[in-house]
Each structure stands twice: as C-alpha cells, then as structure tokens.
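Quick question, first post here. What does this chain look like in 3D?
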Amino acid sequence: MMQQVNWRKSTFSGHADNNCVELAAQDGKVSLRESDDPAVVVTVTPASLGVFIRTAKRGGLDRLTRTR
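> Answer (accepted):
Ran it through. Tokens below.
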C-alpha cells in the first residue's frame, strides 16, 4: 500500500499553485518538488538539506549564477 505524502509549500510562495517548491517529510528523509512539475522529486537527508540551505544563505552558491 502506498503511503499518503503530505506536501507543504512556504507561505512566501503566494496563492498561485505553479510557482513554488514543496516539501514533504517521509521515512526520515525530506522530499522536494517543483509545483509546476510534481513528477520530479528529489529526496535528501535532513542533514544534507541543512548544509545546502546554510551554504546558500552565506552566498556559497552565488558563483553558479555569475556570467563569465
């Protein structure tokens, strides 16, 4: 039997359904998906998601968006 997944989106996403990232906790992992493409799901551990968020907040990923 498939488990029901409770997807949640940030209150910062606004009221539109197709412009947000959704999260779900399941079996000790965190799943993420884009609301406009819900079939694509990325699943990570809470620890690795925490590292990603801290790195992004401190600007550690900014170089990825710079043009050469």
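The radius of gyration is 14 Å.
The longest helix spans residues 46-57.
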